[in-house]
Backbone:
């Protein structure tokens, strides 16, 4: 299945520098439309107003963490099917287990590179 | 009264007098006050003093001396200064590190964006290489986020230590506060000028330095 490179992608991180890095890497990969949110609650509001084909979210944010966002998304009838990748410095086994239990599609540990990002997106959306 | 009863009575008397004195002073007792109470209890004893009693009194006196010296040593490391000065200063410095690395990272990425735009004007084989280079730079900029998170952890640890020092100061009472405030050793003037990079709000810029120098 070909990936739609025009799909809306939402990236969520409280570090503006990180948002810029991820957006740049996504654009290098060929994705054209990237929106940004600085915490889970802002992301959730945006997701209820617009359709996003993929969410790439940090974990450690306030007031709503990435894990809470993921749980809210999976509990929402309209949003629950949205592909969700966690990009985080939280690299303990219990973190990965908690994210998996909450329904994450893939998990990237910071620091990461463009190739890793491409591989994980491919694993979630299909080759591109 | 047998030996054990005498020791128990002595302990009970000492405990009672210490409690009474603490209630009356409303502050933790100083080591001098504790020593005086111990001496009063000992001097109030009647009858023969056994070898065991003497050992007990000696232990008590050692204990009082130990507490006195421990308080002196704690006062010498100036715990109040650590709490009021050093820890806030350290956390400010660490915040400045985060701010400075964030600024630098953004400037690096600005340059990368410019290079990427220029790459579009180059022959494809050169342009592609330039874009690949800027991608590697963006990847490397990940460090800023990780650094920020690690420094935040250090700041949280410093704040935890700060609360523990505050609790220690409260438990040890005014004696340590007072001693900590006093006794500032003479600081070598030239050494005091070596403070390293200043926080942005404390620093002066090159123009201000030039003005100062030209006015001298």
Residues:
């Amino acid at each position: 299945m070909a990936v739609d490179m025009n799909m809306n992608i939402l990236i969520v991180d409280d570090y503006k520098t990180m948002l810029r890095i991820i957006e740049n890497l996504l654009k290098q990969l060929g994705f054209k439309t990237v929106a940004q949110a600085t915490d889970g609650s802002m992301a959730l509001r945006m997701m209820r107003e617009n359709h996003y084909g993929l969410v790439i979210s940090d974990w450690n944010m306030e007031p709503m963490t990435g894990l809470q966002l993921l749980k809210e998304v999976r509990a929402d009838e309209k949003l629950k099917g949205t592909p969700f990748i966690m990009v985080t410095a939280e690299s303990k086994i219990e973190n990965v287990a908690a994210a998996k239990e909450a329904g994450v599609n893939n998990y990237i540990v910071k620091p990461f590179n463009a190739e890793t990002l491409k591989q994980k997106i491919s694993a979630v959306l299909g080759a591109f | 009264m047998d030996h054990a009863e005498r020791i128990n009575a002595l302990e009970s008397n000492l405990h009672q007098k210490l409690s009474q004195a603490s209630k009356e002073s409303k502050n933790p007792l100083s080591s001098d006050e504790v020593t005086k109470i111990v001496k009063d209890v000992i001097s109030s004893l009647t009858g023969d003093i056994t070898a065991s009693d003497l050992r007990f009194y000696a232990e008590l006196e050692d204990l009082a001396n130990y507490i006195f010296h421990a308080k002196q040593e704690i006062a010498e490391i100036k715990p109040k200064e650590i709490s009021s000065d050093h820890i806030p200063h350290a956390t400010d410095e660490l915040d400045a590190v985060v701010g400075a690395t964030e600024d630098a990272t953004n400037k690096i990425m600005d340059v990368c964006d410019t290079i990427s735009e220029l790459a579009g004007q180059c022959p494809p084989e050169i342009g592609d290489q330039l874009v690949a280079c800027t991608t590697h730079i963006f990847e490397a900029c990940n460090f800023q986020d990780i650094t920020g998170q690690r420094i935040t952890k250090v700041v949280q640890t410093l704040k935890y230590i700060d609360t523990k020092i505050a609790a220690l100061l409260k438990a040890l009472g005014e004696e340590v506060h007072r001693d900590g405030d006093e006794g500032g050793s003479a600081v070598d003037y030239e050494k005091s000028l070596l403070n390293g990079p200043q926080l942005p709000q404390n620093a002066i810029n090159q123009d201000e330095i030039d003005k100062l120098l030209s006015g001298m």
Summary: The CA atoms of residues 35 and 92 of chain B lie 43 Å apart. Chain B touches chain A at residues 102, 105-106, 109, 112-113, 131, 135-136, 138-139, 141-146, 148-149 (CB under 8 Å).
